[in-house]
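USER: Study each token:
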Amino acid sequence: MANNLNIHQIKCVEEDGHILIIAGAGSGKTTVLSHRSQRLLQEQPGSTLMAVTFTRDAANELKGRILKRVPDANERVGAGTFHSLALDQLKRSGIKRKILSEQESLEFIKSAMSNYEHEGADPYEVAKMFAAAQSMANPDSYPVFLTNPYYKSVWEDYRALKDESALMDFGDMLHLAVEGMRNGTVQPFRASYILGDEAQDMDEIQHEWIMLHAMNGSIITLVADDDQSIYAFRNASGYEGLVTFVDRLQAKKMMLPINYRCGHEILALGRTLIENNKKRLDKPIEAGVEFPGEVLKPVFAPFSKETDTYKRHRELEVVVSNIITDHHRNGGFQEWAILSRDNFSLSYLERFLNEQRIIYHRDVGSVWDSRAGRIFLSLLRYLSDNDWLEIATFLNNFITSKFLFQNIRTMNLTELYRLESEKNENKNLAKKNCDVLKDLIYQERQWRTMLDEKRIDEVINGVADFFVANLRAFFRNDKSYSAARDILGICVQLLSRRNENSLSRRLFMETSPLVKKTDQRKAKMDTAKRDGKLFVSLNTMHSSKGLEFDNVYIVGCDDDALLKPNEAGMLDVEEERRLMYVAITRARKKLGFSASCDNGEVISTFLTEIGLDRGLLYE
């Protein structure tokens, strides 16, 4: 069974009792879990095993890997996410509560808020606050509730509204299961063994769910890497949670320190960086591959001084150019990934890649998911499908009368224009609204004529021009305005590249999620492989976790991008360092960094720590 395993992996497979496996990046943790599961199930023929993860796909994949090794154990192996398993427990225990949708939950929160006077409270922010509270073992002890009577009262009323209606929100599932296991009304799973993956991302209530199963007799195996704990903003317990798990169950700590992904030089950079963190489990990270890997000289470029240009324009332009040059030099199929701390940079990279006709894939945060992309789509879909709900998305920024929106589906633009013209209140606002409507009425006639004549590209460009002329109503600060304008340019490029002879068909083919993102990526990569072309993946650092690529560029490596306080004014440098470590350890063969700077001086804490604060400066 263990012929292909290294000594560390064999120890993890053969150890008995509760264990915590510290699995470094690229260390073969899934292989270890499947081998360990095989041993446990075969040594104890009557035993059962439950695997718990954070996504349905991960749960199904892990179960599939286990059953591949133990094909006759299908009835003895279960797998699911924390929430799906908790919901199953509630149903088995006869607790029947309907699950609120996000919108329904928001309406309940608004209702609870209406019981009190409090200026400036945003229901959406309150919903985020409540979700954060529900990640704790005891939500009532959430710090804001202890210091702010208003939010505590709204929380209590919100909870009472759900209880009175026999409803629950997403966060309630685990809490009801945990409370039920504590008081005996909910039965734990009778699993001989429980495997928990990505345990560094577990929050307090998820740890408690695991602990209650341990108290019920389940033997727990957790797999984690505290160096890859990057979800503190979701209240992941990280290093502290793993230490607590070991202490409470007297679990053994096992190590998987050998990285079978990164070249020696690449891994050495990651190790040098992460060892600057104080709160981490000590581990001897080492390379398990024979090739050295290549670290490129960093790219530095000046911030743009022009208000209508994204400040990292030059940096990103150089990175794309360097990747193209590298591909021309080596020839044939080549895979690159560009990783960024934020989605802004990825949107601009889409534009550059489109201009160069490079095959690329973006996993999250597509231009069509942006506010500018959604509003642009709403105008186009109104023209293609005559859907008034779509045009309301655009008009909502100009026509604010409740009467108009109550009746919008029974009107046309001309009728809206007449009613808005007759309004007496706020005449200046009404005049501005009328000007936009009047222009839209005129433009619509032109666009529909073009559609009849199959001049689809002219319609797409015309709608984009009209939207740009009114962008200030949607994006008032310069940064958002400039970003929205560039995103529109990308949207126009994407639609203009399609050859369908109807607008509706183009929109459907470009924006409809016909296949999963993973399948889209594979299809695009297969095309690039077949034609011997360059393929680029665009990911945020967060979304790259769990992935690996032959070649990687990490953009925005300066402190302006990586070490800026969040909206609450907080900055966790160790969390950001872990995020950079995750990004570095995505690369197998080649790794590059880029940063923007003022006056030729790059300020980058992390590049300095790994000795790469000297690079090539591009003007």
The first helix runs from residue 7 to 14. Residues 369 and 511 are 10 Å apart (CA to CA).
